[in-house]
Design brief:
By secondary structure, the chain is an alpha/beta fold. The protein has eight helices and eight strands; from the N terminus they run αβαβαβαβαβαβαβαβ. The protein has one domain: TIM Barrel, CATH 3.20.20.10. Helix 3 links the parallel strand 2 and strand 3. The structure holds pyridoxal-5'-phosphate.
């Protein structure tokens, strides 16, 4: 199916999820995750009116960026090795995977201006998942005050890859509750108003639980 058609379907289901909980759909930004698809398919997404694109590897980002340049707003959503920061830092507007101080230090050093970051949280507790443990998030964010180029705009998580709605909802709720706690600290370098959560299988639930950025690959641009 054309990206344009898939995007229409997704926008409709986002509106439905927002209606369920009395939210304004304009609060939700769709990031098309292009990591599985060709440059042409990523271009199709941009032509369909999608502004935000996400990649999870520095090679993939560089390849797509070399073709599409600064037209789209780029998001880095994958695990980031410190030595790769220099390859992506001038290309992306958002980093969703800040999960350790050594990475913060490298981003801070390489960025030419403050960059919007999400702190990745391992809410599900799966050992395969990256991210800060929920009980360590506050302390981690306090420690980020020494890195002026890091602006903590929110928290990010990846829910477990399952269909159990109760477990998914619980995971998103827990992230929302930590986000609220951080936002209430009113730190100038960590407004933490945003929630990056929800993928192809669970974005409607994530939106019902407060997501402001959804990262959609398979359902939007394909595998
Ligand atoms: C691949 C990926 C996505 C998109 O996954 P889909 O299930 O294809 O929508 C979202 N977030 C991250 C971090 C990813 O790596």
């Amino acid at each position: 199916m054309e990206v344009r058609k898939k995007y229409e379907l997704i926008k409709t289901s986002i509106e439905e999820a927002c209606r369920n909980v009395n939210r304004n759909p304009e609060e939700v930004t769709v990031i098309a995750v292009t990591k599985y698809v060709s440059i042409d398919r990523a271009k199709e997404a941009v032509e369909a009116g999608i502004i935000h694109l996400g990649e999870n590897r520095d090679e993939g980002l560089t390849t797509k960026w070399n073709s599409l340049g600064d037209g789209p707003v780029w998001h880095f959503i994958g695990t980031l090795q410190s030595r790769k920061v220099k390859n992506i830092i001038d290309k992306v507007s958002y980093i969703h995977s800040l999960d350790r101080l050594s990475l913060a230090k490298e981003i801070n050093k390489r960025a030419k201006a403050p960059i919007k970051c999400f702190v990745q949280v391992n809410v599900s507790g799966e050992s395969s998942k990256h991210g800060i443990e929920p009980e360590e998030v506050i302390e981690f964010i306090k420690n980020l005050k020494n890195y002026p180029n890091i602006q903590v705009i929110g928290l990010m998580t990846m829910a477990p890859h399952i269909d159990n709605e109760t477990i998914l909802r619980d995971c998103f709720r827990r992230l929302k509750s930590i986000q609220t706690e951080v936002a209430n600290m009113k730190l100038d370098y960590a407004p933490c108003t945003e929630l990056s959560m929800g993928m192809s299988n669970d974005y409607q639930i994530a939106i019902e639980e407060g997501a402001t950025f959804v990262r959609i690959g398979t359902a939007l641009v394909g595998e």
